[in-house]
């Protein structure tokens, strides 16, 4: 009997681990290419710091049909009825959007907020299915429809979806409730401590996705990574590799992939829920910053046609160089937080992305480091169409609970969700598995395991992580053991701000113990926009300008392996850690553009350097 129980437990565990580690298989991608009903707009809210709507007075999770659970519609039919919650004006909030920026009461709030709205659905075919898709909710979301729980998701910057059982769906007045909790915990990703604002809420688009009975959940389409790109260009013969994941098993069914501009139309037979294929193609104009060519691709299955614009390119390293389409490339980057400082809010829209990239272009940059978490998809679309290369990162930031296996699993889920959503973006060249993590064998194993997972899921991009360096008057040696496993060695360096003097850059020497490209994933100094003084006065625009001038002089003397930089940071951003009463007031001031949108003097120093680098094509 005991043996049977053990066997049963093992099976249960096996099944649940399998589901867990393949969670990304169910993520529906390319939402804009599908039949959707937007649930953006005005929702109602309840602020619930004690989680009264979730736990009863014995602090036990409420039963599904508990009338006092906030996922249930309050029923005040008779005047004697006792009801202690409700969703009504003026308790209204916009989705998408963080809550902090919407009402004064939310500014510093961290905890539970209940979101509620109603929606109707149009007439549907009997075979159609409905999914509820969230672009992102920070951090933990419990989703309920008409009193039933659809599911839970953790991770503040990645998408997720739940199917709505047809039997649960009403034609009118569907009562949708989301419990959003942005409290920070030691064993979450990110952890308790970050240098950015913990904006809470339903921060990205919400959609109902209407699908066929079986449909393409997600797919990948990239140039084959093993072909020699110079030979492919010479022979005008390219191999495109693809994979398509269906929502359910299909037998002997056809899926068609079309790229009309390349005169490609191919049928593939699916037996099961996945197919992998290769297509030979001619006359591909490869995607690059100079020519961000995208092709319209369509995937046809079961009477549904899903379209997406996709670019083809090859990114690789050769010794200490980064090659794009076989040619050495220098990354003229800039770091970005997903934030609109003028409105002290998270960025979430196409308009926000367009404004951000206008500044990136003005800087003469060809690359952005999207720090320190996956940004919204509009950012990636803008990058794809403008020819700006992208580094995308998961929030494995500073002192994560590295010894905890459950934390590693959480990081992996976020990594998988990030890769699944964006693996068809040509602009995306680097996956980063973290930032400034403290060196120890436990941490290195943790990070190595993330790198291995990233490479299993996607062979067509470089993998890195932003490392730190200990300053040394003789030579700054980058020897973090994690550098063995990353494709490029990336390091954050603040010589002249966090240590030393800006002049020290002139005698600084750099050494990397690995024969790999060296990328400065950060460097920067703070300045309050509009504050002018002599250059030795900290917080003045002149100090920051001088810092950049000295840094650039140093960069110009870097050894051969130097392949680019992404200074910290394009715009000033909110941070609870920055409390100087005159110069910071809750802002990290290392932006090249201040919180009013004004460019600081240092912007023009970097702009000039990038212009020279672009002209030299170094
Ligand atoms: C860093 C971190 C970044 C901080 C920045 C700073 O090294 O990666 O998140 O905001 O320094 O301003 O100190």
TrEMBL record:
Residues of the signal peptide: 1-23
Keyword Iron appears in the UniProt entry: no
Top-level taxon in the UniProt lineage: Bacteria
Domain named Glycoside hydrolase family 2 immunoglobulin-like beta-sandwich is located at 228-313
Name the residues that span the membrane: none
**Which intervals hold domain Glycoside hydrolase family 2 catalytic?**
318-613
What GO molecular functions are on record for this protein? hydrolase activity, hydrolyzing O-glycosyl compounds
All residue ranges annotated as the Glycosyl hydrolases family 2 sugar binding domain in the record:
38-209
Q: Name the UniProt key words of this record, in alphabetical order.
A: Glycosidase, Hydrolase, Signal
Coiled-coil ranges from the UniProt annotation: none
InterPro entries registered for this protein in UniProt:
Beta-gal/glucu_dom_sf (IPR036156), Galactose-bd-like_sf (IPR008979), GH (IPR017853), GH2_Domain-Containing (IPR051913), Glyco_hydro_2 (IPR006101), Glyco_hydro_2_cat (IPR006103), Glyco_hydro_2_N (IPR006104), Ig-like_fold (IPR013783)
**Which Gene Ontology BP terms does the record give?**
carbohydrate metabolic process
Gene3D superfamilies xref list: Galactose-binding domain-like, Glycosidases, Immunoglobulins
Q: Which family does it belong to?
A: Belongs to the glycosyl hydrolase 2 family.
Q: Which PANTHER family match?
A: BETA-GALACTOSIDASE, BETA-MANNOSIDASE
Q: What is this protein called?
A: Beta-glucuronidase
Which species does this protein come from?
Answer: Flavobacterium cellulosilyticum
